[in-house]
Structures are given as C-alpha cells and as structure tokens.
Design brief:
Pfam families: AP-5_subunit_s1 (PF15001). This protein has 195 residues and is α+β, with helices and mostly antiparallel strands. The protein has one domain: Beta-Lactamase (2-Layer Sandwich), CATH 3.30.450. The protein has five helices and five strands. A five-stranded antiparallel beta sheet has the order 2-1-5-4-3, with helices on both faces. The longest helix is centred in the first third of the chain and has 30 residues. The two termini are 30 Å apart.
C-alpha cells in the first residue's frame, strides 16, 4: 500500500534557505497511526513534519544523484513534458523504522527539473509497479497542470491531482493494469482533464 504521495521542490526556491524544500502537494493514504490523544492541529503539524523529513531525504538524494551523473539539469518549456520526463532522474530510498514512520518504508522518487514527485510505500510493495505508477502520475501532472511553465497551477488545482490519484491509485492501492484496462483508464483521465 502507498502511504503518501508528495510533490515538492528539489532545488532551493529563492525565498528558502539552501537546505530547504517546499511541499507543494501531499496526500496520505491508509490509517493514521499518530497518537489519537493529540488535538487535530497537533496531528496535522506532526504529519506535516513527517512529510518534510521525507522531502529533505529525497532532496538530498536527488542532489547527490545529479552531482554523481555530472549532467546539468536542462530547463524545458511547456510542450516538452515528454522530453522532460525522459530526462528525469529517479531512485528509491529506504526509510528506516521510526524515521519518520513507525515501520520501515520505501520512498520512490522522480525528479523533473526543480520538482520532485515521491511515493512512500510499505516495504513489501512491488517497487517496479510503484515506479510505473509514479511515472504515469507524473506524466499526467506535467501535461494537465502545465508544471514546467512559470506560475504552475499545482496549488490552485489540487482537486485535479486528487482526481488523478483516485483513478490511478485508489485508496493508496497500486493497480496491476493490463493493456485494455490501462487504455480505458487513460481515456477516463483524459476526459476528466479536459473539463
């Protein structure tokens, strides 16, 4: 099961210090194992801190990966989403128990220019299936939300991301898709996005 999906920055934003990243979108799935005695506000703050910890670890890994590859990040423009996705870097990091989740998790990430997309999955999940699902989600996000251009609509159109997640990752479950079902799902998503 997928525990959360995050869209965040992987390079410093002008208003942030050099070690910080900004979470643009987050959605959690499954039971909330945070202490039920906490107030809703405290639970929300703890969940936010948990997501920021994951984002910091992914950002650090992306930076190291980009340094090791030696390839400069080439800025793409709207309309070049497919090329940007092909040029993206990806990877997996293991989140040990207690850092930040009570049990061990895997974080599958995909970095497209200055944006990072992360799926946090339970340790026993099929990582190839998770990566394929993440790439499909990222492709739809880049194409429908025009995330490569200035003034990205991520924050204003979170309902579209929610709809994509409901179709491609229902209740946090990874879907095995045959060709026919995948084609049907693509049509459904395309019809929703054009609304």
């Amino acid at each position: 099961m997928v525990r959360c999906f995050l869209i965040h920055t992987v390079v410093p934003v002008q208003t942030l210090s050099s070690g910080d990243s900004r979470v643009l979108y987050s959605r959690s799935f499954g039971p909330n194992e945070l202490d039920s005695e906490l107030s809703p506000e405290d639970r929300r703050l703890l969940e936010k801190e948990r997501m920021l910890l994951v984002v910091r670890q992914v950002r650090s890994t992306v930076s190291l990966s980009r340094e090791a590859s030696g390839k400069p990040v080439v800025e793409m423009v709207p309309g070049e989403e497919t090329l940007a996705l092909q040029e993206s870097s990806s990877g997996v990091i293991r989140l040990r128990a207690g850092e930040p989740f009570p049990e061990e998790m895997s974080a599958i990430w995909l970095a497209v220019q200055s944006l990072g997309f992360t799926l946090v999955c339970e340790a026993h999940e099929n990582l190839l299936l998770a990566e394929g699902t993440l790439r499909n989600l990222v492709r739809h996000c880049l194409e429908s939300l025009h995330m490569l251009g200035q003034g990205s609509e991520v924050l204003l159109r979170s309902h579209r991301i929610d709809a994509l997640l409901n179709r491609l990752l229902p209740h946090g479950q990874l879907l095995f898709l045959n060709h026919r079902f995948h084609h049907s799902l693509e049509k459904e998503v395309a019809a929703y996005v054009t609304k």
